[in-house]
Design brief:
Number of strands: 13
Distance between the termini: 7 Å
Number of helices: 3
Order of helices and strands: HEEEEEEEEHHEEEEE
Structural class: alpha+beta
Shape: globular
Strand content: 35-45%
Amino acid sequence: MKAFRLLLAACALSTALLSCSTTKALAPDGGSVYMTDTKKIRLLPPSCMDGSYEALQLFSGSFGSRQFASQTYLECTEERVFAMLINEFGIGIGTLSYQGESVTFESDYFPKDLQAAYIVADLQNVYYKVSELEKNYAAAGLTFLCEKSPDGIETRLIQDGGTVIEKITILPARKEISIQNVLRGYSYHLEELEE
């Protein structure tokens, strides 16, 4: 575990030193993202986190006809949300950081206009306290629902009226997570990897 953390720290440092594309993206109104074409939510501070989470994950997904896959080191705590994308050679190819004031995304491999605040919003929908998310979505005129099945699978839905905008499925202990944004036509799958 210690060697793994040292490798991740070295990758993060090399990514930071070699990266020339940095995006700090928070709107002047305090960091809002549009969940529909007309309704937006605030990004909540990391203090709304439901516990802490740290793991190496396989991150795969699709946007329209495009597909992608990468390993990701994800750390979610009450102080910050941090993710590092890692290529097949174990080299960091991008970092995402959010500490409540601004979203920072650094990478040479992704478009400069990537709106990383939307990734933070999706991570909040998975890792933040349900009560905080319910209030945040209600303030935007949207509904956030959470149901747990007897086998421990959690389903979170974001709805505008009766229309599902996003569906999140969380397996027990957060070992696997699926996020499907029906409105925008993208999906992610996060699967925890063994160290």
